[in-house]
Amino acid sequence: MATILLFDIGNTHITLGAYQGDQLVSTWRITTRVDGTADEYAVMLRSLLKQKGANGMTFDGCAIASSVPPLASTFHELCQHHLHLEPIVVGPGVKTGMNIRTDSPREVGADRISNAVAAKKLYGAPAIVIDFSTTATIFDALSAEGDYVGTAIAPGISTAADALFSHAAQLPRVEFVAPASKSPIGKNSISAIQAGLVYGYVALVEGMITRVKKELGAKARVIATGEMVHLIADETKVIDVVDEELTLKGLKLIYEMNK
Question: Against a cut of 0.85, is the pTM above it?
Answer without folding.
Answer: yes
